[in-house]
Write a structure and sequence with these properties.
single chain; about 140 residues; alpha/beta; Collagenase (Catalytic Domain); four-stranded mixed sheet; 5 helices; about 20% strand
């Protein structure tokens, strides 16, 4: 089950049914299935508080992923800062919804087991993001 929440933001996420279909497709492509997945849209200040309280990191970020996976069942919390996603979209010159989709699939890829600590891991993560974003666009067509 995929559930959507918001904390300290007025942002309303539309297209949940399609998004759920896409995220399930990503999971199945990686030989996984969705368990209990919470996507929490929040403000920069909210995610900073989460980052400091639970990870002892004193900086803003666009996403924090908490992993509760068991076996091939993907479960976790994806905290997504709508403020940072907006800033990143402007910085990279991309549409807000495209950047938001990238961040969501990025969090799901972390739950699947992909990391982004090294340059090689970052390259793999970006390739996976691009691939699944292109599949999303094909689903829309």
């Amino acid at each position: 089950m995929i559930a959507y929440y918001k904390e300290d933001t007025e942002f309303i996420f539309k297209g949940r049914a399609f998004n759920n279909k896409w995220l399930r497709m990503v999971a199945e492509s990686e030989i996984r299935r969705i368990g209990e997945l919470s996507i929490i849209f929040c403000s920069d200040n909210y995610i900073l508080d989460v980052n400091m309280r639970f990870l002892q990191h004193d900086y803003f970020t666009d996403i924090i992923t908490f992993d509760y996976c068991e076996g091939n069942k993907l479960s976790g919390d994806l905290f997504i800062s709508v403020d940072s996603v907006r800033e990143n979209a402007a910085y990279y010159g991309v549409d807000f919804s495209d950047e938001l989709n990238r961040v969501m699939v990025h969090g799901l890829l972390h739950l699947i087991g992909y990391d982004d600590h090294t340059e090689e891991e970052q390259k793999t993560m970006r390739q996976k993001e691009d691939y699944y974003l292109s599949l999303r666009k094909q689903l829309l067509a």
